[in-house]
Amino acid sequence: MHLERIFAHIVAGYLIAVGLFFGLASIFQISYIHIEPAGKFYVLGISAVFAASGAGSFFLLRKGKLKKDGASLAEVRQEAIEKLKDPELLSRIALKDSDSELRASAQERLKEIKGTN
After folding, report:
1. CB-CB neighbours of 49 under 10 Å
2. pLDDT (0 to 100) of residue 37
């Protein structure tokens, strides 16, 4: 599976696991975690919030209600390159950017600017 598609599920699962771990740690004695008796209810409450938020997020993800809206970072950067008029910045992007498509777009934009001057 592709990590981008399952990343939100991983985060939701992590929230559930953390909530369950600290919830169980506040109820049962675990040798490497010491929770003061006065703070057990606080830890239990916070762990319940973690577990519930993770379970809610996972449920909403499975129903398709937490889909990403809007443009990706690459799309936003592409639009910005198309509007840029600074040859120095465009040449820096064309030479040093990590995204090959954005480098190519910056080179094309540089050609357009030089053709109009």
Report:
1. 12
2. 86
First to last CA, the chain: 48
Q: What are the mean pLDDT values of the chain's consecutive 10-residue runs (117 residues total)? A: 79 96 88 86 94 95 80 88 92 92 93 81
E strands along 1-117, which residues?
none
Q: Which residues contact 20 (CB under 8 A, 6 or more apart)?
A: 47, 51
Q: Is 107 helix (H, G, I), strand (E, B) or coil?
A: helix
Model confidence pTM above 0.85: no
Q: What is the dihedral of CA 25, 28, 31, 35, to 10 degrees?
A: 60
- Residue 86 token pair: 């600074």
- Asked if 22 and 43 count as a contact pair (C-beta separation under 8 A), the reply is yes
Give yes or no for a contact between 74 and 101, defined as CB atoms under 8 angstroms apart: yes
